[in-house]
Amino acid sequence: MKLVIGGYAQGKLNYVLQESSEDNYEVFDGSIPDEMQLQKVQGRNIVINHFHSWVRECLANGGNPEEEIFAFLEKNPEVIIISDEIGNGIVPADSFEREYRERTGRILVNLANQADEVVRVICGIGQKIK
What we know:
The protein is of the alpha/beta class. The protein has one domain: 3-Layer(aba) Sandwich (Rossmann fold). A six-stranded mixed beta sheet has the order 2-3-4-1-5-6, with helices on both faces. A hairpin with a 2-residue loop joins β5 and β6. The protein is globular, with a radius of gyration of 14 Å. The protein starts with a strand and ends with a strand. Its EC number is 2.7.1.156, 2.7.7.62. GO terms for molecular function: kinase activity; nucleotidyltransferase activity.
């Protein structure tokens, strides 16, 4: 698994797609593919873009993003996950927003620990940090 992080609008997806000369990617935006979607894209590299948005939606719907993402990765270890860094700045007054930021940050820490590679993208330039 590869984790790509960076601020909003820093060119993370473009960086991932340009890193390989292959045109063999299937990008899921703010979602994790289910079994049926995976069958349709079999043999292609899976990119989960806007992972942080998926975490927010999962929490809003009463899901458990920690369990869901790690169960997904167990079956699909070659995925590329792209997420905004959302823990910087002012701490939100809203309790849901605080929980969302906290849990997303902790999930990203766990993903980074498990990842084969972690890249931080700033201004479209990737810096390998693991």
